[in-house]
Design a protein that fits this description.
The chain is α+β, with helices and mostly antiparallel strands. It has 1 helix and 8 strands. The radius of gyration is 19 Å and the shape is globular.
Amino acid sequence: MRLFTPKIVAAVAAVAAVGAAGGAALTEGNNFPTSTTAGYASTNVSGATVKSIHYTLSADGKTIDQLELVIAGDVTQKIVKAGFGTQALTECTIKAAVGPDTSAKCGFTNEDTSAAKQLNVAVYDN
């Protein structure tokens, strides 16, 4: 009598892979989920602590139109820039500080989600 059919072995392997991937995402050094697109493969931030990132994608999901950053502390008197990969950083619009944090919106033109694997953010004095 065979206890393990190929289908059972494949199902167990799939569940194990999902569990391992989820565990790896929870142990990342940053607080952002890991993915291979939209800047999540790696995020580099200098000059501040970014608490969250929210991407706004095009209707077809192929490009990033905008991202919103929540930055720890009041950085309303600073400059915030963001960009992907080796591209030049784009200046973001800083909104008023809300409580202890500051929100900044960054617009992009035709930033391909499949190529946007590294997000770079810089916050510095004006």
